[in-house]
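We modelled the chain as a single entity of 95 amino acids. Its sequence is:
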Amino acid sequence: MKRPSALLLVVAALLLVLVVAQPASAVVCKSTELQPCVPAIVGSPTPSPECCKKLKEQTPCFCTYLKDPRLRKYLGNPKAKQIAKVCGVAFPPIC
């Protein structure tokens, strides 16, 4: 009787490890995903719903983008922060 109980315990532990070890869906940092926000940055008064959606998806990438000199001029300007605020997205305070 001890053998089946021990085997069951080992199987349960393995299943638990497999479930816990499943990787979370990682965000792929692609600055081109923010393309829908360009009109709002360069002129349009309000961001589009697509822009807000992309900002929310790409939030984990903001520090990476801000460290890139080509992107910093867009994401580092006050207009970008205003757009993020309208979309309900928080910029990281420090990267």
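As a brief sanity check on the tokenised model: Helices lie at 2-20, 38-42, 49-58, 62-67, 69-75, 78-87. The chain has a mean pLDDT of 78.
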